[in-house]
Amino acid sequence: MTHRSGGDHVLRRAALARVEGEGAMCLHVSDGRVTDVELTIFEPPRFFEAMLRGRGHTEPPDITARICGICPVAYQTSACHAIEDACGVTVPEHIERLRRVLYCGEWVGSHALHVHMLHLPDFLGYDSALAMAADHREIVERGLRLKKAGNAVMTVIGGRAVHPVNVRVGGFYRLPTPEEVASMRATLTRARDDALDTATFVGTLDMPAMEQPYEYAALRAPDRYPIESGEVVTTLGRRGSARDYDGWVREEHVERSTALHATLEGDGPYVTGPLARYTLNSDRLSPLAREAATAAGLGTTCRNPFQSLAVRAVEMVYACDEALSILSTWDGGGEPFVEVPPADGVGYGVTEAPRGLLLHRYRLAADGTVLDARIVPPTSQNQAAVEADLRAFVQARLDEGLDLDRDLEALTRQCELAIRNYDPCISCATHFLDLTVVQE
Amino acid sequence: MSAEVLVIGVGSPDRGDDGVGPVVAAEVARRSLPGVKVLADLTPLDLLDAWAGARTVVLVDAVRTGDPPGTVTALDATVTRLPVGVGASSTHGLGLADVIEMSRSLGRVPERLVVVGVELSDCSAGRSLSPAVRAAVAPAVGAVLAALGGQP
Fold it and tell me: What is the helix (H) or strand (E) element at residue A328, kind and residue range?
């Protein structure tokens, strides 16, 4: 093997584009070796956990929804689960089912935006969705239709598309009318066809080769693909409840980032999100989503981070299919919510946000006052894996003899793509991107 | 179906002068102009749908061009391309100019699209409008009405 990239080089992006929030990337390369990788998150910290102390036990779903404009339902659902857990309340099945449909809407909207507007331009060689739209109008139109379908579900069940207002501890303020259910079914039926087209199109794309060795963590449920419920399982054989997961996740502050870096019990990087969900749960897909996975070029597991694009497309098919399945047997439900009387205790809630596992933990006083809160979002959990991916990806290109004096800019662009594989949500994590490759 | 004539206030009421768009839109709504629909609180991608099929759209937004705070400008975006990727501050970096140019790529630009801009001063979280921008609300409403002028 030859190292054609002698000397020192820096791959740098001072402000990462097409990610949610503010961050930067810097890689140092010295004589053909990657010597340092830094994903820097400079979005200001947001102190949500401290803000929650002293609030009433019914408030966290509305307060924490404000952490993210793309995945508020994830925050609301994890918060409701944790508080209901603390208070010893189990919600009736119709509430659980409607929460799952609402969450499906969020998955469709979030994935549609990332796949079509943020990630596909990389694969098709454009700087932005705007530049891509001129040549690939149909792809952009399809993405917009899917985003709109997701928004429609959020609006009907959640009360509005961003930061839903109809979610409460114990259930919902009101349940959808039969006409609203019929309208959602019509929208989702069209969206499912669009999602299938996206999955088939993604299957035609060339993906860079890469294999991740990390531990994958995701929820797993007995009879369905994980969204709002299930046990936490990992590819190294961990298996436990939300409470166990709270004990596994260690977070530490690193100077370059306002987001905490997470590990599982102090071990190396782990990955949460589409690849982990799929690898641990592809046997739980619906038959139609399974077909979409085959069309998208996926096997039963997926360890190539660039293929996350394909997994998101398949998950959109699944989310539409699953929501339709639930709504096809929806009989109007029952009471919109159950009372959740406050109780002294600690509660845990973990759900699959579009970007991965989202853990909430609350300690409540007897009168329901929040004494302590912990929120572990997906992007902070994936930070270490993003850095490890960048190191492995750039080193592999250098080992293949890539000439950094000639291809520095092209490689830097591929690094940005590698970061976008995670659909990082920096605003959520700061409680994170600019990209620099330094050849020194 | 979308209304044929739309006035859309763009911006967040919780971010100081960024909230001027919705404030101006509310003032226009208060006049109950026949045939004119007034909207606010839309995400950037919602805008694309909101004006699909509309004949005339007037957008009101806070802008930063270097003019004195409170300066009101009107730009006919039907003919003038906006500088994209500049000053994008919304979710995932899709700014108003990007949305307008994407709309152009997708063939969704209304027959007439006017952007009324109010030069901002302070967009701190939790603030209300700065004095200079508050004083510009009436002139901005006038600019919207002028842009609607000649419309049935």
Answer: helix A308-328
Q: Which residues contact A239 (CB under 8 A, 6 or more apart)?
A: A231, A232, A233
Q: In this structure, are residues A232 and A244 in contact, taking their beta carbons and an 8 Å threshold?
A: yes
Q: How far apart are CA A201 and CA A215, in angstroms?
A: 29
What count of other Cβ atoms lies within 10 Å of the Cβ of residue A20?
Answer: 28
Q: B49 CB near a chain A CB, below 8 Å?
A: yes
What is the Cα–Cα distance from B125 to B112, expressed in whole angstroms?
33
Mean pLDDT of B59-87: 81
Average pLDDT over residues A288-299: 98
Q: What is the model's pTM? A: 0.89
Phi, psi of B63 (to 5 degrees): -130, 160
Residues of B in contact with A17 (CB under 8 A): 93
pLDDT greater than 60 at residue A434: no
Query: What is the three-class DSSP state of A69?
Result: coil
Q: What whole-number distance in Å separates Cα of residue B72 and Cα of residue B136?
A: 7
- Note whether A43 and A405 are within 8 A (CB): no
The amino acid that residue B49 corresponds to is: D
Residue A218 in tokens: 């995701």
- Which chain B residues have a beta carbon less than 8 Å from that of A141? 106
A70 in B contact zone (CB under 8 Å): yes
Q: Is B52 on the interface with A (CB under 8 A)?
A: no
With bands split at pLDDT 50, 70 and 90, how would you rate the model's confidence at A361?
Answer: very high
Give the angle subtended at the CA of A139 by the CAs of A393 and A70, to the nearest 5°.
Answer: 70
Specify the 3-state DSSP secondary structure of A44. coil
What tens digit of pLDDT does each residue of A237-281 get? 999 999 999 999 998 877 777 777 788 988 878 999 999 999 999
Give the C-alpha separation, B116 to B150, whole Å.
17
User: Is the alpha carbon torsion for A268, A272, A278, A281 positive or negative?
Assistant: positive
3 state SS of A370: strand
Residues in a beta bridge with A240 = A232
Closest CA relative to residue A58, chosen from A134, A144, A148, A170:
A170
